[in-house]
Amino acid sequence: MSMTDIPAAEAPVWHHRSFAGRLALYAGWLGLVALFVWCWNLMTERTMWVFVHDAPKAAADLVSRAWPPRWSYMDRLWGPLWDTINIATLGTLLGIVIAVPLAILAATNTTPSRLFLRPLALFCIVASRSINSLIWALLLVSILGPGILAGILAIGFRSVGFIGKLLYEAIEETDAQQIEAITATGATKAQILSYGIVPQVLPTFYGISVFRWDINIRESAILGLVGAGGIGAQLNASLNVLAWPQVTLIMLVILATVVVSEWVSARVRHAII
Amino acid sequence: MTAADYPTRWKRPPQLIKSRFWSYALAIGAIVYLVLAVGTVEVNWQRVMIGMERGQRFVAGFLQPDFTTRWRDISQGLIESLTMTLTSTVVGVLISIPIGIGAARNLAPAWVYAICRGIIAVSRALQEIIVAIFFVALFGFGAFAGFLTLTFATIGFIGKLLAEDIEDIDESQAEAIRATGASWLQLVNYAVQPQVMPRLIGLSLYRLDINFRESAVIGIVGAGGIGGTLNTALNRYEYDSAGAILIIIIAIVMLSEYSSSHLRRWVQ
Question: What is the CATH number of the domain that holds B94?
C-alpha cells in the first residue's frame, strides 16, 4: 500500500495531549514567563548595571590579586580551625540533647499528650528549622557577645529542628508489635522506651547525628562572618582588609575540611547502616 | 539439671560496638575530646550578664513585634527576597536541565559527562554565603548578586538530582523509542522527559522553598533581600523590628513548606 491512499490532509496526526490540555499547558507556561519577567523587573530596579558590565574586568583583577594563596598564613589558621570543629561537634551534641526529648514528645506513638505537648514540640521543631544557623548566630552574638559560645548555641538550636524532625518520623515508623511484646511483659513506660523503641531507632539516630555533624562543619565554617568564632572570623578579618591571598587560603582550608568531614560521615554511616 | 546450668539473669547485648576494648577506648577518647573542646570555650560572664538584658528585650520584641516603623525597609527587603527566589529558581532550573542531561551516564558521552559532573561538584562544594561574598565583590551590592548566588547553588542541586533520576529511568522505554529510529533529541523528548518530568517539577518546587530560606541569609553579606534588613535592624538594636522580620520569615517558610509539599504530592 502506497502513501497516496490517504490524502495528507486527512491523515490522523498523533498528539501527546488533547487540545484543551495543550491550551492549559501553554497558558500555564505563559503565566510563568509573565511572572518571571515581572519579578525580574522588580528585582533589577535598583541594580547598578555599570558594575555588572564591569564584572569580567573585576573578576580578572580579583583572580590576579588572589592568586597565589598566602601559605605562611596557615600558622594562624590551626587555632580557628580547631574552634570550627569544636563548634560543629559541641553544637551537634547540644542539638541532640534538646532534640531527643522533643522527638519523643512529638511522635504520635510516644507522646504523653496529643492535645497540648505534641503541637508545642512540633512548633519548636519547625521554628528551629525555619531559622538558618547564620541568623541564629546573628541573634546570639548580639545577646552573648562574639565568641565560640554563640556559635555552639547557634549550631545547636538549628540542629534541634533537623534531628528532631527526622527522629520523630523514625519513632513513628517503629514496629508496633515489638512494643506490644514489651508492654505485655508488664514493662513501665521508661522500660518500653528503652527496650522497645530505642533499639529500633538507634541506627537511624546515629545516621542522622553524623549527617547533621557533617552539615554543621560546613555551617560553622562561615558563622565567624557574624562574629561567632571559628575560621569564618579569620575570613571576615581578611575580607575587611581586602587581603585576597589570605581569603584564597581560607577558602581552600574550608573546602578541604568539608571534603574530609563528608568522607568521614559517609564512612561512619556506611559502617552503621 | 541444676539451676546453675540455666541462666536466670539476662544481660542486654551491646547495641553498636561488639568488642569491649573498642567500646571503652571510644568512650575514653570521647571524654578526652570533650574535656579539651569544652576547655576552649571562653565565656565572658560580664558580657553575658549585659547581654541577658538585651536578650529579654529581644524576647519582648519578638512577642510584641513592630511591623510599622520600618515597614518601608521590610517590604523592600521582602520584595527583593521573593523576586530573587523566583527568578533564580527559574533560571537555575533552565541551566541545570542541559547540565543534568549531560551528567547522566546513559545519555552523554564520557567527556561531556566529566565536564557536567565537575560543574555540579563545584557548585555543591561551595557554600552559598561564600559564593555570595564573591558575587557581591564582582557585581556590587544588591539583589542581582543574590540572584546569581542562588542560581549558582540551584544548578548543583537540581543538576545532581536530575542526573541521578535520568540514570534511573526505565531503559526498556528508551529502547522502544530508539527502535523507531528516533534521533537523540527525540529520544530525550519522548523517552526521558515524560519519565523525569513529575520529579523535576517536584524538585523545582522544593528548591524554590530552599532558595527563599537562603535568600534570607545571603543578605547578611550584602546580596540584597530580607537578611540585609534583619542585619540592619539588629545592628541598630531595634529588636521589635527584628522580631517582626523573623516572624515574617518563619511564616513564609512554613507556608511555602506546606504548599510545596502539597503541590509535590499533587504533581507526583
Answer: 1.10.3720.10
Domain A80-272 classification at class level? mainly alpha
Q: Please state the domain extents for chain A.
A: 80-272
The span from the CA of A133 to the CA of A130, in Å, is 9
DSSP A81-103: HHHHHHHHHHHHHHHHHHHHHHH
Q: For B191-227, how does the pLDDT look when each residue is reduced to its tens digit (9 = 90+)?
A: 888 888 888 888 888 888 888 888 888 888 888 888 8
> In chain B, positions 249-268, which contact chain A (CB-CB < 8 Å)?
249-250, 253-254, 257
Q: Is residue B40 part of a domain?
A: no
The set of cell numbers assigned to B265 is 504530592
Domain count, chain B: 1
**Chain B neighbors of A150, CB-CB under 8 A:** none
The minimal CB distance from A143 to the residues B51, B83, B129 is found for B51
pLDDT tens per residue across span B141-191: 888 888 999 999 999 999 989 998 888 888 888 889 889 988 888 888 888
Complex ipTM: 0.74
> Domain residues for B233?
71-267
Of B79, B139, B221, the CB nearest to A42: B79
Each residue of A43-60: pLDDT tens digit? 877 777 777 777 788 778
Spell out which residues of chain A touch residue B79, defining contact as CB-CB under 8 Å: 42
Tally Cβ neighbours within 10 Å of residue A107: 22
In a domain, B81, yes or no: yes
pTM: 0.79
CA distance B238 to B64: 12
Closest CA–CA distance from residue B146 to any residue of chain A (Å): 10
- Residue B1 belongs to some domain of the structure: no
Contact A144 B51 (CB under 8 A): yes
From A135, A202, A255, residue closest to B217, measured CB to CB:
A135
Report the C-alpha gap between A202 and A184 in whole angstroms. Answer: 22
C-alpha cell at A83: 574552634
